[in-house]
Amino acid sequence: MSRARQHVCAFDFDGTLTEGDNVVPFLRRLMPSWRVALGLAARPSRLLPALARRDRDLVKAIATDVVFTGRPRLEVESLALAFAGELVDRRMRPDTLGRLRWHQQQGHQVVLVSASYEVYLRPLGAALGLDGVLATRLEVADDDRFTGRLDGPNCRAAEKLTRLEAWLAEHSLARDQVVLWAYGDSAGDRQLLDAADHPVWVQDPLDSVVPSV
User: Fold this and answer.
1) How far apart are CA 154 and CA 168, in angstroms?
2) Is the pTM for the entire model greater than 0.85?
3) DSSP at 49
4) Considering the domain boundaries, does residue 97 fall inside one?
5) How many distinct structural domains can be found in the chain?
6) What contacts 145, CB < 8 A, 6 or more positions away?
7) What separation in angstroms does the CA of 42 have from each of 60, 75, 146, 149?
8) What is the pLDDT of residues 121-170, one digit of tens each?
9) CA gap 158, 20 in Å, rounded
10) CATH number of the domain that 119 lies in?
11) 69 partner at 20 to 30 Å CA-CA among 166, 181, 204, 209?
12) Angle at the Cα of 125 (from 122 to 126), degrees rounded to 5?
């Protein structure tokens, strides 16, 4: 008898589970906007080519350098925990959060796959009872301070699918053993949704009728 396929649901975060972006609001918790602007302006040799190429990954890496370099890990994690609580309480979309809860009620494994920073998505994932959080990681030095560099690539576009495939392998789930659902709202989610058995684009509010399994 063949083994029943496990349903795994991969949700993007910004714009999919929440109303809009959360990276910039979190950066503003750590540093006033004017200081961020000054820090970016002080790096023209990196910033201007990134803007000219519309290289979102490099722009994010530069902003990460400005805001996080030298910050104590515990200080940032404390702010991230509070930020995560606010997101859960005030910023979640009722339609997609309702769909996430439906998947959980069906016994499906639910994973966040997001370009947002892992530092606040991990406590948010714990609060929502998720099975995994795959997000953009921050590098920490031996002195327990952030280096200002990303730990690995920005988790968007093709990297989302790479990270999800690695998570499946870590949980001994071969792709042919999984029914993959994916929810996203932007071009950065396209590769993930293209690989899914059930891709769901959520630019518009989701219908309240749940899909058939």
Assistant:
1) 19
2) yes
3) H
4) yes
5) 1
6) 70, 71, 72, 73
7) 15, 25, 20, 17
8) 999 999 999 999 999 999 999 999 999 999 999 999 999 999 999 999 99
9) 21
10) 3.40.50.1000
11) 166
12) 90
In a domain, 31, yes or no: yes
Question: In the structure encoding, which two tokens stand for residue 182, read together?
Answer: 């994916």
Q: By residue range, what is the domain housing residue 80?
A: 6-201
The owner of tokens 């684009």 is 201
Q: Is residue 63 situated within a structural domain?
A: yes
Rounded CA-CA distance 197/33 in Å is 41
> Distance (Å, rounded) from C-alpha 9 to C-alpha 109?
6
**Collapsed DSSP state (helix, strand, coil) of residue 130:** coil
Residue 194 lies in a domain: yes
pLDDT in tens, 8-59: 999 999 999 998 999 999 999 999 988 988 888 888 888 888 788 888 889 9
